[in-house]
């Protein structure tokens, strides 16, 4: 719910709070094979990848230059992520691998509840906080079960946004006193189940998202002879910001306008069910990056709440929905990939605002509910994937110019030699023009293929030299801004963006990405990432940065004999279920890890899809497929186009592949 499509453009720019700190990257960064000046420190990597900004308190770098995970946050204990990955690989769990840290999940629930407890104490709020987890954020069984278990001390409940999610919530949530919030489109069956759940001891609250649902509820209640607990989702006029901003406002997809809320009150009163109306809900969008927006919304909703009480509804609950943000880039700003507040500020503002409104009207304060999904589920999983290969722009300078060399090549060579900090912008235009000329001359047959190759290499060499100069400048002219991108290496990674980070593709969401080892070593390359799919959108070329985004990521030089692992962090919300099977890359392997006094325990291993499984999703039967290959080999054997050994090898490979992981084994 409340998600938008690919074309909705980002319009915000990160507000620069302070003067740039010294985040300059080292001057020697380049695609060339410059020797790394020693003296690169772990702290340099910390600053470069901003891990203390987005990773605190769960992720950091140890003295060995590896990413470490402290799943219990500040409460002690840590794991070396690189060593963990190697240990998992020894257990035949191939990359890409999704590692879920159950302790992080628990820590997130603890933090959220602690923040509300603190706010409740601070403002002498005479009511409780009972959060719910929106199941749509991550429906994986192991995760939801763990979450319900961790939430028991806080009577933490679940929110269902659809009928299938209601099935999960009804069967999984048994915590006494916890709430089951029933959102989404509803039919008779949905509503009956929600009402009957009360007889099982559940506090199931049916939240009206559409005006038509009120008649269904009244009818079901009459039929069953049970009074439901009802809530209304209000369409606030306070708007969210960013790409989920359209979840609120008069034209939002869900919720009741104020006139519709009044109609609902009248209908419930006529059916003698006004005392069933106990909850007001709103949801103004996900990843709210500005605390001002949070405040506006709770202020408006508080007034609606007290007015509903005045009209005679037995108001008891205020449900502020989702929206609690995650600081993906660690900048603590109101940029869309960040947020300018912490959980405590969020809880304080909600508690203070509703208390004030109720006190003014002499009303008891409600039980507070938030449906925080992203803030609970994002941090707990890390996707680790490996680099399969790289490709660089061919920047090595060709042999020196010979006698009788083509004029265009001599021009490019001279351009190369005369590049300086005085003329680099002009030289870039010259080099570009000469390269284009070389291609036209080639098209007319005046330049040979080897000459064209030489011209292209000279052009790339010019670009690299100019880039070296550009990086020293404080100000980069507009026409040279793309140079970094043009010259970036491509790192081919063993992953499908469509499967593992769909929001990166669909809505340009940023996730922190960094190597999980070699962090005591200077990353001398600048790269974009290309995934395994044959889709040109299957790439990542936007990365977190202190200001806006950066289009290349600093990485270490790649040696095909040495594994090189990257981690994508904070991707535990929404990505898994929205991932798709583009090019038939299936679910990745996943493991659930808990910290133990001696190290860690692997609670669950969820093997990724095999080829047989993904082929089954598109109705291919693997036995039929094998049979087809067998018949073709028999036919070829009879016609003596294949030897018996070759035919067996083909069949063996084919059959073996069917039971294998869909990703490449490096
Ligand atoms: C998606 C959604 C949420 C979760 O929002 P987050 O920003 O992930 O916390 C909560 N409530 C409703 C109604 C939603 O649609």
Automatic annotation (TrEMBL):
Domain Arginine decarboxylase helical bundle: from-to ranges: 403-484
Active site: 534 (proton donor)
Limits of the Arginine decarboxylase C-terminal helical domain: 611-664
Similarity comment: family membership: Belongs to the Orn/Lys/Arg decarboxylase class-II family. SpeA subfamily.
GO biological process: L-arginine catabolic process; putrescine biosynthetic process from arginine; spermidine biosynthetic process
Catalytic activity: L-arginine + H(+) = agmatine + CO2
Positions carrying N6-(pyridoxal phosphate)lysine: 136
This protein's name: Biosynthetic arginine decarboxylase
Protein origin, superkingdom: Bacteria
Biased composition (Basic and acidic residues): 1-22
Skewed-composition ranges (Polar residues): 24-38
Cofactor(s) it depends on: pyridoxal 5'-phosphate; Mg(2+)
Ranges for region Disordered: 1-40
Listed pathway(s): Amine and polyamine biosynthesis; agmatine biosynthesis; agmatine from L-arginine: step 1/1
Species for this entry: Oscillatoriales cyanobacterium SpSt-418
Record key words, sorted: Decarboxylase, Lyase, Magnesium, Metal-binding, Polyamine biosynthesis, Pyridoxal phosphate, Spermidine biosynthesis
InterPro entries hit by this protein: Ala_racemase/Decarboxylase_C, Arg_decarb_HB, Arg_decarbox_C, Arg_decrbxlase, De-COase2_CS, De-COase2_N, De-COase2_pyr-phos_BS, Orn/DAP/Arg_de-COase
Broad class of enzyme this protein falls into: lyase
Protein encoded by which gene: speA
A GO MF label: arginine decarboxylase activity
Function statement: Catalyzes the biosynthesis of agmatine from arginine.
Entry EC no(s): 4.1.1.19
Residues annotated as domain Orn/DAP/Arg decarboxylase 2 N-terminal: 113-377
HAMAP family: SpeA
């Amino acid at each position: 719910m409340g998600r938008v499509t690919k074309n909705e453009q980002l319009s915000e720019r990160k507000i620069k709070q302070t003067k740039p700190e010294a985040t300059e990257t080292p001057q020697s960064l380049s695609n060339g094979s410059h020797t790394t000046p020693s003296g690169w420190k772990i702290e340099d990597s910390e600053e470069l990848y901003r891990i203390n900004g987005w990773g605190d308190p769960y992720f950091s770098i140890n003295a060995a230059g590896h990413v470490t995970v402290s799943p219990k946050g500040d409460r002690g204990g840590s794991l070396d992520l690189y060593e963990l990955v190697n240990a998992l690989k020894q257990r035949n769990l191939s990359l890409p691998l999704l590692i879920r840290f159950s302790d992080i999940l628990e820590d997130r629930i603890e933090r959220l509840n602690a923040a509300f407890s603190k706010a409740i104490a601070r403002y002498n709020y005479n009511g409780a906080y009972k959060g719910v987890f929106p199941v749509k954020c991550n429906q994986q069984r192991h995760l939801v079960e763990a979450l319900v278990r961790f939430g028991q001390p806080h009577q933490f409940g679940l929110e269902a946004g659809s009928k299938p999610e209601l099935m999960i919530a009804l069967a999984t949530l048994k915590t006494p006193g916890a709430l089951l919030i029933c959102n989404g489109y509803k039919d008779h069956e949905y509503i009956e189940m929600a009402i009957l759940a009360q007889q099982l001891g559940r506090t199931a609250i049916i939240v009206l998202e559409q005006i038509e649902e009120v008649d269904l509820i009244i009818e079901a209640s009459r039929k069953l002879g049970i009074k439901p607990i009802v809530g209304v989702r209000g369409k606030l006029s306070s708007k969210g910001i960013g790409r989920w901003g359209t979840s609120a406002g008069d034209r939002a997809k869900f919720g009741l306008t104020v006139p519709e809320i009044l109609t609902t009150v009248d209908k419930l009163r006529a059916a003698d069910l006004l005392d069933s109306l106990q909850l007001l809900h709103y949801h103004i969008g996900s990843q709210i990056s500005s605390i001002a927006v949070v405040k506006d919304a709770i202020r408006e909703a508080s007034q609606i709440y007290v007015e509903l009480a005045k009209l005679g509804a037995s108001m008891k609950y205020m449900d502020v929905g989702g929206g609690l943000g995650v600081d993906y880039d660690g900048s603590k700003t109101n940029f869309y990939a960040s947020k300018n507040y912490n959980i405590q500020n969020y809880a304080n503002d909600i508690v203070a605002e509703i208390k004030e409104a109720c006190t003014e009207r002499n009303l008891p304060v409600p039980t507070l509910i938030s449906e925080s999904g992203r803030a609970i589920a994002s941090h707990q999983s890390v996707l680790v994937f490996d680099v399969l290969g790289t490709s660089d722009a061919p920047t090595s300078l060709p042999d020196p110019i010979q006698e009788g060399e083509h004029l265009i090549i001599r021009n490019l060579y001279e351009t190369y030699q005369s590049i300086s900090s005085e003329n680099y912008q002009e030289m870039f235009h010259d080099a570009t023009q000469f390269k284009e000329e070389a291609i036209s001359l080639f098209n007319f047959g005046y330049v040979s293929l080897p000459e064209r190759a030489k011209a292209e290499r000279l052009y790339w060499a010019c670009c690299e030299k100019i880039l070296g100069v550009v990086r020293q400048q404080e100000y980069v002219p507009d026409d040279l801004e793309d140079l970094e991108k043009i010259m970036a290496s491509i790192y081919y990674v063993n992953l499908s963006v469509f499967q593992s980070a769909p929001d990166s593709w669909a809505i340009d969401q940023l996730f922190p990405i960094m190597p999980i080892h070699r962090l005591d070593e200077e990353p001398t390359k600048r790269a974009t990432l290309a995934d395994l799919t044959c889709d040109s959108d299957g790439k990542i070329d936007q990365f977190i940065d202190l200001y806006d985004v950066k289009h290349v990521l600093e990485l270490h030089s790649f040696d095909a004999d040495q594994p090189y692992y990257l981690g994508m962090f904070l991707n535990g919300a929404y990505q898994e279920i929205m991932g798709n099977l583009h090019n038939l890359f299936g679910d990745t392997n996943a493991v659930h890890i808990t910290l133990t006094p001696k190290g860690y325990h692997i609670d669950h291993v969820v093997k990724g899809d095999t080829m047989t499984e993904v082929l089954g999703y598109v109705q291919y039967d693997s036995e039929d497929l094998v049979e087809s290959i067998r018949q073709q080999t028999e036919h070829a054997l009879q016609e003596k186009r294949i030897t018996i050994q070759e035919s067996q090898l083909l069949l063996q490979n084919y059959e073996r592949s069917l039971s294998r992981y869909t990703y490449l084994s490096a």
